[in-house]
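Aim 2 progress update. The chain analyzed this quarter is reproduced below.
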Amino acid sequence: MAEGVVSIVVQMFSNPIIQELKFLDGVGDKIQIGQTQLQIMQGYLKDADARQGRSEAIRIWVASVRDAAYDLEDVIQIFILKVASKRKPNVLTRFTRIFIKGVNLHQIGSDIEKITTKISQLSSILPSLNLHQTTESGGGTFFQRQQERRIAYPHIVDPHVVGLAPETEILATHLIKEKGPRVVSIWGMGGLGKTTLAKQVYHHGEVKRHFDCFAWVCISQQCQAREVLEEILTKLISPTNEQRQEIAKLKIDQIAEWLWNTQRERKCLVVLDDIWTSDAWSSLQAGFPKNEETGSRILLTTRNKEVASYADKNGFLFKPQSLNNDESWELFEKIAMSETKGKYPKIYEQKKELGMEMLQHCKGLPLAITVLAGLLARKDTVDEWNAVHKNVYAYIRRGTDLGPDYIGEGYEGVSWLLELSYDNLPYYLKLCFLYLAQFPEDYEIPVSTLTKLWMAEGFISSASAEVMEDVSYRCLRELVGRCMVQVGKNGSSKKIKTCHLHDLMRDLCMLKAKEGNFVHIINYSIASGAKETPNSRVRRLAIYLDRMVDTYGWGKDENYGHVRSLLYFVPKFSDLDLKVTKNLVRSLLRNFTMLRVLKFEGMYVRKLKLPDEIGNLVHLRFLSVRGSDIRVVPSSIANLVCFQTLDLRTWLGTKIPIGNVFSKMENLRHIYLPKPQSAREKRLLFATEAVNLQTVVNIYIQASSDLDDFVKLTNLRKLGVIIFDGGEKKEKGTNIIFKHLQSLSVNSWLGDLAIPWNIVLTCPNIYKLHLEGRIAELPKDLMCLTNLTKLTLIRFGNLKDDHIKVLQKLPSLRMLFAIIGIFPASLVCSKGGFPFLECLYLYHLSELKEWKVEKGAMPSLCRLQIGHCLGLEAIPDGLQHITTLKKLIIEMTHPEFCRRLGEGGEDFYKIQHVQFVIITNILPNHPR
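Predicted structure tokens:
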């Protein structure tokens, strides 16, 4: 990890201001010395990082190098910011000395000299550590060469399943057996594929047809019983908003009783994934029927056989077997060698021989095979495979203790394959990977947020002409391709939306992060016990907050001047009561002077005004108060000229100072403004010089001005505008074309205005379009949006037959959401219409009575969801011809409608080929 820190600092020396500083007497020579020393040291740090876990002397040396590099970075950053603040915006000069008036060059020179002296002393120790200089062969950096090479396998989640079919059938049979076991448990060590197997069972066709409702929950090591029981109940009953509010007020015993009764009355399947202790099960069992026959079942996965036995002494326990040699090779070959096979037979045979030998050391563990194969998939030559082969042997001979539960099981040493994969990462990916250690266990990490955090931390180089966001996303794809990170969800454009770490990979991440003092986690969970005081040199803090905890004393008196990143994580539940005071927030802002990242999301601080001290955090690059209760942002926020990302999407809206508070934020790339609560709110002026701006969300514009304010922001990728009526409409709007815009949201509902299509049509390349407001017309020019894959229509008024004809001709549309509006009484989807539509969601559509789908319409439809369309008499006959339809969800409709869909009902023949049919929240009988 120190290699990454030093590399980032070395890159800083290319800053134009620092280049000018090199020519100043008394400072320039000291900067040059520091740069040279770090560059020499860079070559040894890759080897040092890999060996520090096995040598205390190397560990201490690496920590000292890392801290010296951080200190040098701090001095340089402070100087750059002071000089940059004195020159005029957007004016570059070769004469930096003009702008150093008031800057203490002597002090800067003295600080740099102290650090370079320390670095020089550390360099003198190198020979005694017996470190080897490592460089990338072939010229250029590893990163540059990776960009030029095709990423062969950027796998998503669980794409390769081998050998699970027989086991899946066994477990499914036990679950659906009439008088079968109440609890079916899958147990075994981490990485054995327990969750993968559970997913296969959960989605098994017979299982889906047998049970009425389903719930899948992940149980963390610190199981919070109320939250888990509430989540299960919510998933089983799909509550209305009123029921959600009722559940939030209930005590744990009331939730348990409701959950108990639900499982007695209906056939429910509940999956408890990764339950750690018998105590955790004890805290949950009150919500599950025990000593009586029900049709409900529990599928449980755990690492501990004792937990599986304790959950139900009469339950069915199943331990997945490790993959045999043939299965191991099948999985390995799919990931590592699919492109070599058949094309290069000689190379294939050589690699196969090496691969078969290396596989012996994986012990048939699916995760170990997947990680090793992911590593080798990126190695093109036989020589590179030989090098990995030798390293695998070295790692395996050393072995490792996975804990007392696994001694003698034949798994010793397997975890070293994970560390081998980490050691093989280039420095920039090591930093990105270690950053994931800050996120809580079982946390689905939003990729959009994660990539912005990496950028704010300086992990992503902006030296090339490539957009930083693209580089950052590619880093994630590389980690996924190496099987270091798993994909959670994909977005409408097939990009990765959320990600997470497998348990064993997270263990490795936490170990390496702690080893390098990369991050410190302060857990304010009630069950977490005493709080460990962070090392004074720690640069990143992650704060886990629980309900009903008092954080008042933390951070008040300590000096955290070295901390660069402060991330808060709070539970997602509605009855959260965090005793976070205004004084605490003010003290945090005062003490964290070098902070670059502040994630203050979901914090309820009782109508807090963000303190004026926020303006002192001049190094801040990322600030998110999303979902918090911050009501006012002070004018001092205009001082934060380093901002890249600013997210102000709070619960009830936030007042922002009138005037152009963003004018000096030249580095601003993403800004999310609070959504106005009414059309009467004053318009926020917006005229920034941030030409690299990528995202603007919830910005007010006049219907008459179109996008005049954005004439310079032609690099926008995501834009969310709120239209209000503000004057006479111009005869001709601004002739702007947003070629890079990918996502557009237009809201004219607050002002009760029709959607202005001239704004939509200025964005020819969008793939995601969200419209909220009346649709007076649907122009045929809409078909020119050839990349449009996702369209959301909300409160759209009355759609006519002509509108539907336009929609079904959109050439690339894959997802269509129609929510709250009026469809034609008789809706017709014509033959050939919606050719690529995969997902269709119809909700609260009044007047819709008859729906006809002609044969050949929607040939790609996979998912159909219909909710609260009370006038609809039956599903269309044409669904029987859509063989691609895999999932049908019907919710909030009449019992008669549902009866027709049941086996033996009049409409059953239309959907009998659909694999998953889910009917929820059936309304009570009433006259129609």
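The domain at 1-135 is CATH 1.20.5 (Single alpha-helices involved in coiled-coils or other helix-helix interfaces). Residues 56-86 form the longest helix (31 residues). These observations will guide the mutagenesis experiments scheduled for the next reporting period.
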